[in-house]
Specification:
The protein is an alpha+beta fold and 434 residues long. 30% of the residues lie in helices and 29% in strands. The protein has 13 helices and 23 strands. The protein binds glycyl-adenosine-5'-phosphate (GAP).
Amino acid sequence: MPADFDTIVNLAKKRGFVFQSSEIYGGLRSAYDYGPLGTALLRNVKDQWWRSMVQMRDDIVGIDSAVLQSPEVWVASGHVASFSDPLVECRNCHNRHRLDKLDDPDVCPSCGKRDEFTEPKLFNLMFKTHMGPVETDDNAVYLRPETAQGIFINFENVRRTARMTLPFGIAQIGKSFRNEITPGQFVFRTREFEQMEMEFFCRPDDADEWFTYWLEERKNWYLGLGMTPDNLRLRPHGKDELSHYSANTSDVEYRFPWGWDELEGIANRTDFDLKAHADRSGKDLTYFDQPNNDRFFPYVIEPAAGATRTTFAFLIDAYDEETVNDETRVVMRLDPRLAPVQVAVLPLSKKAELIEVSASLANELRKTFAVEHDITQAIGRRYRRQDEIGTPYCVTVDFDSLDDHQVTVRDRDSMTQDRISIDQVEAYLRERLR
Ligand code: GAP
């Protein structure tokens, strides 16, 4: 059964996936902290992205650029001039809204008054701060609104030092910041979030082919990690939707509880960024293609995904409810590579002789898997908790284990149980959690 929005948000809070930022001070709107399980899930999503985009390929390398960059970067990229949303203010309640997101452009959704909006004003979404002790216009800097520009400004550094030849990509995962006017839907749209972006540089005449390639590649990444095919689609942008830098964009969209919405944008950014940075910095960012003996600005295909948003989508997609023995069982059917806990080791009771065996087994398994040694509560409740957090395998140590040196391994999805010799457990799990 698919999850509704409130159910997932409540589960995320109850089990410690996500907390409201600054909760003890009443909460900071639109910022979230990831708890132990959420941190592990988010990290697993990022690791899987890195594995598929960098580790498994010899044509893509990774970087980690600074959040704070020269303000010139954002002038060249066009963010200072055009990274803005049209904003209207209600004269009655003084709330501000994005004009393009209003259901009725004449009615204030906060107070319901009609025809009270001011003329729209453009509002830049970049967070501005100051570098150093004096706050003047000369030392204003921005928190990066995307990780992509850190890649473009390092194009030549990376090409030269990593000895890359076209076609090649540079990948980066990191925090981005946008002063969104209408944050919302939990961690879907926040003012601080994480992105997973890759800029793939190629010959201009090969750009269309690589664009098609990356659409398929990226869609298959989500499917390969178990996302329900009916909940995923590619949606090409109309001409009026394209960003200022893009010749062609398609979004990977997920069917969220409120409808289809963006997980990732895949864009043909042409040579817009390299040219813009070359113009503004005065540095030569062209590429000399030895085999063809020509020099040009490479084109760029950019798959740009949100790590936090994708993590949320995997949570929603994994949620399932079924009836077992007249009771509702909630189970997160997360791919084992994403599951925050892969193996839970559970002694049947808190008796010291059982805990001695279970603790030693947990410590052994920890070397290979993400393990939780859970000794609290009745065994049924512990199974329920592990199902709810998506743990693929529970290993139970009971009194028979003390004599026969075997344990029961329970499969999350089928709930079947196998009796396995303790010294075989690691191999058994390794085969299934590969
Ligand atoms: N470099 C291109 C770029 O940043 P984008 O479509 O604005 O493109 C890419 O952002 C991805 O980053 C989005 O598809 C989304 O997953 C994520 N993202 C963007 N704004 C976000 C926000 N306010 N909160 C959470 N994720 C966001």
